[in-house]
């Protein structure tokens, strides 16, 4: 029942958004006739395209991905620009109305008769039409420009970020330990093998001690994406490559992917901990696993741990640090947020996650969140470029 309510609500929201776009971009900018009919049909088609894409890509209809997700991005920025324009548009309309009300009415004086008002043409509708068209053109060009920039950023190579994080309990012998951190690769309808190969090459060039892949590797089954993920077997590191599940693995046949990444040479950390010289490296399952009886189990992960040893935890979602802090975790490495992916969506992400991008602290535990190397949904990144991070640990 909950799923049905959510779907109905989501469809209603999509419908209302497209109704608003139709009003501002079609009805307000055209007169009754063929152009308005064509715009109305386009609005209906695009309104249907959104849910068709979200559903179709989940059942293998990947041809919907490019048109559907691109429209999602343009739609998102159209809504933002048009809403921002509502205030100046209202002010302009009020100014036109006042101008009309204050204009003197010319009269003609007939020979020997009373004054006669000449026939007048009401130019207000033409002015309102011109105003609406100007706003629509501005909104369309702005949304297209931002989306174009975002596409170029999202499809380009991830940027390499380097961050040094001091840990008080890190022994001197582990000073300078380097962890290549990557998350949210999102192999799927819009990203394939070439994407994986580029990321693997970036990580190998780091010459890191540890590789950490912290979830959301895929958006599809092993059968669909096994070839795309295959380059992961070429990952190189001195002390191993490790993997924890993200929420999207639970939409994609998580157990098959756990087995597949293990076959490719990455060790899945499934609510478990291992020792790397003077450091404990731990990993917990994603919160989405709770619906599959495969959720995070911090008690199991840290059972019998030596409290004098520092702990680095791999966990897909930053919010998991609230539980990790109860077990004295020194540093949590996460992804999930995409850095917000599309400004100003990052403001919404902050309502759910305590850290959206970069280094923060949650209840005394340091949390570093990478933007992720891929994207979900629209192939667009604005204000949050794709990222692979080299984390260097220093003793204090």
Q: State the helicity in percent bands.
A: 40-55%
- Give the overall pLDDT as a whole number: 92
The end-to-end span amounts to 53 Å
Instruction: Write the H/E string, N to C.
Output: HHHEEHEEHEHEHEEEHEHEHEEE
| Biggest beta sheet attributes | 6 strands, mixed
Low-confidence stretches: none
CATH topology of the largest domain: Purple Acid Phosphatase, chain A, domain 2
At the first level of CATH, the class of the largest domain is Alpha Beta
Strand numbers in spatial order across the main sheet? 3-14-4-5-6-7
Q: Strand pairing plus helix content: what structural class? A: alpha/beta
> What is Rg?
28 Å
**Percentage beta strand:** 15-25%
**Based on the structure, what is the oligomeric state of the protein chains?**
single chain
Quickly count the domains: 2
| Backbone shape | elongated
CATH superfamily of the largest domain: Metallo-dependent phosphatases
Transmembrane segments: 6-26, 38-57, 69-92, 130-151
Keywords: Hydrolase, Membrane, Metal-binding, Transmembrane, Transmembrane helix
Protein name: Metallophosphoesterase
Domain Calcineurin-like phosphoesterase: 177-339
Task: Write up this protein.
It comes from Phytohabitans maris. It is a single chain. The protein is about 40% helix and about 15% strand. With about 400 residues, the chain is α/β, with parallel strands linked by helices. It has two domains: about 1-100 and about 125-155, no CATH class; about 160-395, Purple Acid Phosphatase, chain A, domain 2. Strands 3-14-4-5-6-7 form a six-stranded mixed sheet, with helices on one face. A six-stranded mixed sheet has the order 8-9-10-11-13-12. The radius of gyration is 28 Å and the shape is elongated. The two termini are about 55 Å apart.
């Amino acid at each position: 029942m909950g799923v049905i309510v959510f779907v109905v609500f989501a469809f209603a929201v999509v419908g209302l958004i497209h109704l608003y776009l139709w009003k501002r971009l079609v009805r307000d900018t055209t007169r009754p006739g063929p152009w308005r009919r064509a715009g109305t049909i386009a609005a209906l088609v695009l309104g249907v395209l959104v849910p068709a894409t979200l559903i179709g890509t989940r059942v293998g209809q990947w041809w919907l991905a490019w048109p559907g997700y691109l429209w999602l991005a343009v739609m998102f920025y159209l809504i933002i620009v048009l809403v921002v324009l509502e205030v100046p548009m209202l002010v302009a309309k009020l100014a036109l109305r006042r101008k009309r009300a204050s204009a003197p009415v010319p009269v003609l004086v007939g020979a020997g008769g009373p004054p006669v008002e000449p026939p007048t043409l009401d130019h207000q509708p033409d002015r309102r039409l011109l105003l609406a068209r100007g706003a629509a053109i501005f909104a369309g060009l702005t949304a297209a420009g931002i989306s174009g920039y975002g596409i170029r950023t999202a499809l380009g190579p991830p940027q390499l970020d380097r961050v040094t994080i001091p840990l008080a309990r890190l022994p001197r012998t582990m000073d300078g330990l380097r962890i290549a951190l990557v998350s949210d690769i999102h192999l799927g309808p819009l990203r394939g093998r070439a994407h994986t190969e580029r990321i693997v090459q970036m990580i190998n060039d780091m010459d890191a001690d540890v590789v950490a892949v912290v979830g959301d590797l895929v958006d599809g089954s092993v059968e669909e994406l096994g070839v795309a993920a295959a380059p992961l077997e070429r990952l190189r590191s001195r002390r191993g490559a490790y993997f924890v599940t993200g929420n999207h693995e639970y939409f994609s046949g998580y157990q098959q992917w756990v087995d597949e990444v293990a076959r490719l040479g990455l060790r899945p950390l499934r609510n478990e901990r291992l020792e790397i010289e003077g450091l404990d490296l731990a990993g917990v399952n994603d919160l989405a696993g709770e619906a599959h009886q495969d959720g995070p189990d911090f008690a199991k992960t840290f059972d019998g741990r030596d409290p004098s040893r520092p702990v680095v935890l791999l966990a897909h979602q930053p919010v998991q640090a609230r539980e990790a802090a109860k077990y004295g975790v020194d540093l949590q490495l996460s992804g999930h947020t995409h850095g917000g992916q599309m400004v100003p969506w990052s403001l919404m992400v902050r309502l759910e996650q305590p850290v959206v991008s970069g280094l923060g602290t949650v209840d005394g535990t340091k949390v570093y969140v990478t933007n992720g190397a891929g994207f979900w949904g629209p192939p667009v990144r604005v204000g949050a470029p794709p990222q692979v991070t080299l984390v260097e640990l220093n003793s204090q």
